[in-house]
Amino acid sequence: METKIPEQTELVDQIIDVIVSEGMIEREKVQPDATIESLGLKSIDIVMILTALEDKFDVYIPMDGPFHEAKDVKTLIDAMATYISKEKNISPEASLGQETK
Predict the structure, then answer these.
(1) Model-level pTM?
(2) Count of domains for the chain
(3) For residue 19, is it within any domain?
(4) Buried b (16+ CB within 10 A) or exposed e, 45-74
(5) Is 24 helix (H, G, I), strand (E, B) or coil?
(6) What integer pLDDT is reported at residue 10 of this predicted model?
């Protein structure tokens, strides 16, 4: 089963949805400049988020990747979106404007 990658804005929204549900935090708090620490996310929460993203997008996300070095939400989301797009062989720029039905 092939998982299609949504356009970049939708991809970011889906990543935020996973952060909200797996991190059990309010969506309003997931702002680009919010730090991982300010959201109360622990390393186990990050692992759960990465695992949920693996399931959602059918990709393998290494646990020693740049995701664990992220200090704020923007860095975390950018790293995830770039990695998912790369794993699906679609550049983030190329995914803009593509229809995914």
Answers:
(1) 0.72
(2) 1
(3) no
(4) bbebbbebbeeebebebeeeeebeebebbe
(5) coil
(6) 84
